[in-house]
Amino acid sequence: MADSAVVRALEPLVRMPASPLTGDNQVGGRILPAPRAPRLKVHSPYTGELIGTVPDSGPDEVAAVVSAANAAFRGWSTQPIKERTQPLFRFRELLLQHLPELSHSAARECGKTIAEAQAGVEKGIEVVEYALSLQNIDAGASLEVSRGVRCELRREPLGVVAGITPFNFPAMVPLWLFPIAVTLGNTFVLKPSDKAPLTAAVLARLMHEAGYPEGVFSLVHGGARAVQALIDHPNVLAYGFVGSSRVAQQVYVRAAERGKRVLALGGAKNTIILAPDADPALAVPGVVASFTGCAGQRCMAGSLLVAVGHCDDLLDGIAAAAAKVRLGPDMGAIIDPSAAARLREAIERGVRDGASLRLDGRNVAPPAGYESGSWLGPTILDRVPPRSHSATEELFGPVLSVVRVPNLQAAIELEQQSPYGNATSVFTQSGAVARQVGDAAESGMIGINVGVPVPREPFSFGGTKSSRFGHGDITGAGGVELWTKLKKITSKWGSATDGSWMS
User: Fold this and answer.
1) What confidence score (pLDDT) does residue 9 get?
2) 161 and 246 share one domain
3) What is the 3-state secondary structure (H, E, C) of 192-226?
4) pLDDT score of 502
5) What is the CATH number of the domain that holds 124?
6) Exposed site from 295, 438, 465, 477, fewest CB < 10 Å?
7) Phi, psi at 333, each rounded to 5°
8) Residue 122 falls within a domain, yes or no?
9) Residue 429 pairs with which residues in a beta bridge?
């Protein structure tokens, strides 16, 4: 019998479609043709080959999708929440059944490894499971506030809402948005990234198979024109966005000017504070996984390592472990050639600014058979000047910038000066150090000996500063707040002789 490791080595890194896929706008299971819209090409980061096309929708195509969603809202929103939840049970089972398909689809269009893509889907399923619980926990409230006077609190859906999602998590981020939104009674329009839109079509197909009525979940493809048309449409009332901080701010401003509700999550330059007493068994793999996972293309990547005092042994271990990360099996590809070129220029700039190149990933060989893809190996810039581009800007790739500081207070001050506020982690064996960082750090998500501190449900995901525009968080209780409005009803059915001013 062949050795399993040999068999795995002979398997392709990711399954490619036999021919390019054709993605279309959808309402339920119905295709909405867009004959006048130009087609956008989708290329796989693994090979650079064409794997699909989708329409570059404009105002007319967006209006057709929104019209169907608006028509479906009244009937959907008036169903009891326990009835609205039933298709979601079926959708969860379909996600599990189609986990390999979703994982390969996400991997081939955004560059992840299969394991990373599957983990993203599984994290999305957690949010589905939280949405399933809403039928039992979202009961509103009622209280007799005075003699004969009762106040009632009701949570009601908004109407047509939309999600604008990024290339790096083509399954997970949509699953953070629409399961909660539709369970609460909204109808939802998903606009996936034009760089990775094909996995969204799989999600749309599974939502249809789960039995959702036409118009409850819809899909519209496109680039900036589609986003602008969604924001400008008067019947779309709220938006969840995940992407770069620059675009997040633009989306927030445009939507807020039109009186819309929006939560726009942006990028980050996440800080990892490395204390000299850190446990190598936790710190070394934790740091390496944080900056190389998803090829560094995630808003939770720990790309700024602040080494406190004498950390040379730990840094040696990090560099040695990162050098063993294999392109392909261990770390995926960069989204496209322009992003890879930008990262290479950022590395050169870091050296020009005074950093030492401790680990250079620019010449790491791509996996055999995938040489035409977009690849960059793990890279470590050491002794980075704290005000330089490498230390302050989100590079969005597998590049770790190491800044050395003399003490913990200097590390905390560096973290506080960042314009971003997604995540801060600290590796230490001291409870006092962990508490000090947890109290002083200004990020929305804190990790103690955890390099990627993404909260699990029911705890919500969200940052601070320029990592978030709008109010609240996404997923969990924050997602419930995002997609609903509160109605307060005060009633009295008789006079009370000994009541308060409300009588």
Assistant:
1) 44
2) yes
3) CCCCCCHHHHHHHHHHHHHCCCCCCEEECCCCHHH
4) 60
5) 3.40.605.10
6) 438
7) -100, 165
8) yes
9) none
Measured distance CA(151)–CA(301) in Å, rounded = 46
Q: Are residues 200 and 308 in the same domain?
A: no
pLDDT tens figures, 322-336: 999 999 999 999 999
Query: Distance (Å, rounded) from C-alpha 162 to C-alpha 151?
Result: 32
Q: How confident is the model at residue 497 (pLDDT cuts 50, 70, 90)?
A: low
Which of 210, 356, 380, 372 is closest to 305 using CA atoms?
Answer: 380
If asked whether residues 219 and 71 sit together in one domain, one would say: yes
Q: What is the CATH number of the domain that holds 282?
A: 3.40.309.10
User: Could you report the per-residue pLDDT of 134-143, keeping only the tens digit for each?
Assistant: 999 866 788 8
Tell whether pTM > 0.85.
yes
pLDDT digits (tens, 9 = 90+) for 85-106: 999 999 999 999 999 999 999 9
Q: Is residue 287 part of a domain?
A: yes
Q: Which of 110, 294, 299, 311 is catalytic?
A: 299
Task: Give residue 392's domain range.
Answer: 271-448
Measured CA to CA in angstroms, residue 29 lies from 43, 53, 68, 107, 214 at distances of 25, 19, 12, 24, 7
Amino acid 5: pLDDT: 44
Write out the two tokens for 455.
């909260």
For residues 116 and 279, give the distance between their C-alpha atoms in angstroms, rounded to a whole number: 25
Q: Let me know whether 42 and 172 are in one domain.
A: yes
* 347-359 residue pLDDT tens: 999 999 999 999 9
Note whether 252 and 331 are same-domain residues: no
Q: Does 110 qualify as catalytic in the annotation?
A: no
Q: What pLDDT is recorded for position 423? A: 97
Do both 209 and 308 map to the same domain? no
pLDDT at 13 over 60: yes
Strand 21-22 relative to strand 50-55, pairing? parallel
Task: Work out how many domains the chain is built from and give that number.
Answer: 2
pLDDT digits (tens, 9 = 90+) for 209-234: 999 999 999 999 999 999 999 999 99
Answer whether residue 196 is part of any domain. yes
Residue 265: strand, helix, or coil: strand
Rounded to the nearest angstrom, the gap between the alpha carbon of residue 170 and the centroid of all alpha carbons in its chain is 9
Task: Say whether both 292 and 164 belong to one domain.
Answer: no
What is the token pair recorded at 398? 């597998």
Residues 45 and 61 grouped into a single domain = yes
Residue 146 lies in a domain: yes
Exposure letters 140-169 (e unless 16+ CB within 10 A, then b): eeeeeeeebbeeeeebebbbbbbbbbbbbb
Tell me which amino acid residue 306 is.
Answer: V
